[in-house]
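Dear colleague,

Thank you for sharing your sequence with our group. We've completed the structure prediction you requested, and as agreed, I am returning the results in plain text so they can be pasted directly into your records. Please verify that the sequence below matches your submission; if there's any discrepancy, let me know and we will rerun it promptly.
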Amino acid sequence: MILHTARICLSKHAKRRMDERSLKYDDVVESINNPKQLVYDKWNDVYIAVSITGNAVVYAFKGNRVEVLTVLGRREYEALVSKYGTKRYKVLT
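Please find the predicted structure tokens below.
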């Protein structure tokens, strides 16, 4: 997968959310490279990689790097998907 070679950068917001959820950098990288589910957010042109534990990593491609914008908990992610559904989100895998 191309993400294995891309440089992954974390926003300040993503770092704060990782701390709140006791997630490590390796957890985020694992979620991006091996998602249980991959979703595309059409409104914001970002991807959401859902981990096996249910955390959702929101990221975007910025040139030759991947920028992690935030990390959502399972309930936050599920609430967004149920609120906006297919008009906003497209499940890729």
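Summary note from our side: The chain has a mean pLDDT of 92.

Kind regards,
the structure core
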